[in-house]
Amino acid sequence: MIRNWFRTLLAYLHLPLFAHTVRETNEIREEIEFHLTSSVQENVDAGLNDQKSQQAALEQFGDVDSVVRDCCNVSISRHVFWHRIHQVLTLVLVCAVGSLWFYTRPNSAENPDLSTLAASGYSVAETSGDIRGTVVAEHGKPVNAAHVLAVIKTWPPNGFRQNSYTATTRADGTFIIKDVYPPEQDYEVQIAAIADDHLLQSEYITMQKGTLEPFCFQINKTSPFVLRFESSDGTPIVGVSAFPFERVENDGHEHSVYFCSAQPIVRKSNAAGKISMPHFLPGEQVTVYVRFPDSDWQQRRLTVPDNANDVVLTPRLKNQLDDG
Amino acid sequence: MSEKRKADLLQGTLDMLILKSLIEGPRHGYGVAKWIQVTTQDALKIEEGSLYPALHRMQKRGWVISEWGVSESNRRAKFYQLTSEGRSQLTTEVKAWAHLVDAISLVLKSNLAEA
Questions:
Q1: To the nearest whole number, what is the mean pLDDT of chain A?
Q2: Domain range list for chain A
Q3: CB-based contact B53 A27, cutoff 8 Å
Q4: How confident is the model at residue A173 (pLDDT cuts 50, 70, 90)?
Q5: Measured in Å, how far apart are chain A's first and last C-alpha atoms?
Q6: Measured between alpha carbons, how far is residue A257 from residues A169, A246, A276, B33, B74 in Å?
Q7: Min CA distance, A35 vs chain B (Å)?
């Protein structure tokens, strides 16, 4: 059986279906012609004349065309089987090549023209989401000139983007940062509102798609809090940079400013080595970033004193982690 | 009437007769027909129109293979040769035929006894 299949496969590979049909028809006709000739010769040998011999041979054989057709159908059916297999394999090959091309083709979405990309890593057209909201104090009183610090995280193809944006509130306490996130894609937002003599407030929007609802920050008034920078011998240090990084409410709720968005709220110590940082409540655990002259940024964790005393910070000693 | 009876006898046995005709060696279609006719002393004369489709069908099944050659009259002819599958098939068909003949004989003998 397998040998027969192999034989018919070789025959098919040797001649495609159409050529095989023509050749098979010719061969069958030749085969039958030999049969009829032999039959005619036998009749002649038996004493019939040529005409009668031919007539008798044809009558004995029957309808030649019908026999040729029957033989051809039988023979071609073998070829048709392999032809079907051939077609299926060709189709599979075409599909495989097509799929390969489809999944490996240069993807314009993955390799867009860089000039059309927004900071989100998506096209400008896709990055159409605005961040808007209001910053108010007690009793809904609008806070003018509050800093709004936003960080947008996006995951464009083959990458991750984190971009910071800042805005200040208008007289009516509203703010808007336009075209910063892609509403149709995944994104996350960290946003903080901060103003002099007001509490630091922030929100974090975890992974989502769609349009952001307007933010509404209520930043209540707070008491004064001053950092004083001194050297180990008590000399005030001028030009120390600092900004509030994080505060933790008594209920554990954290509010923070991302480092990359903090530039607008960085302050420098004055001649007395002081920086006012009235953004916390007494008793809160807070973290501030400080940078002494000719030094790197470093975190300092503090506890805001209940009284109005300044908190003194000195350049970090070895193994010193916490202050206050 | 007589020819009709001959045709009826050949029903289902054509393959077996063709395979048997090739047991001694390759033959062309005309040779197969003549061998059957001569061997059966003109008792069986197969329909030549059925012979060639049967040969092609048997070739498709792998029972015979064909090859072009030169006939005794020095003409080009297609010769059919039995394969090992064809020999197995012949054995099978001969057994089945013998079994059928035995069965029919039993029936006929039974009818004669009852009569």
A1: 86
A2: 2-104, 115-218, 226-313
A3: no
A4: very high
A5: 93
A6: 17, 6, 17, 103, 105
A7: 5
Mean pLDDT (whole number) for A218-244: 90
Give domain limits for chain B.
Answer: 2-114
Cα-flanking dihedrals φ and ψ of residue A296, to 5°? -95, 165
pLDDT in tens, A56-70: 999 888 889 999 988
List A152's β-bridge partners, or say none. Answer: A163, A189
Is the CATH code 2.40.160.60 the one for domain A115-218?
no
User: Which amino acid, one-letter code, is at A106?
Assistant: P
pTM reported for the whole predicted model = 0.49
Measured in residues, chain A has a length of 324
Q: Are strands A129-136 and A215-218 parallel, antiparallel or unpaired?
A: parallel
Residue B4 is predicted with a pLDDT of: 44
Among the partner-chain residues B47, B53, B65, the one whose CB lies closest to the CB of A71 is B53
Domains A115-218 and A226-313 share a fold: yes
List CB contacts of A236: < 8 A, sequence separation 6 or more.
Answer: A228, A229, A230, A269, A271, A272, A273, A274
Q: Residues of B at the A interface (Cβ-Cβ below 8 Å)?
A: 28-30, 33, 47-49, 52-53, 56-57, 59-62, 65, 71, 73, 75-78, 83, 85
Fold classified for A226-313: Immunoglobulin-like (2.60.40)
Helix (H, G, I), strand (E, B) or coil at A43: helix
CATH number of the structural domain B2-114: 1.10.10.10
Is 0.85 exceeded by the ipTM? no
Among partner residues A3, A41, A74, which is closest to B60 by beta-carbon distance?
A74
Kindly state the average pLDDT of the residues B85-93.
94
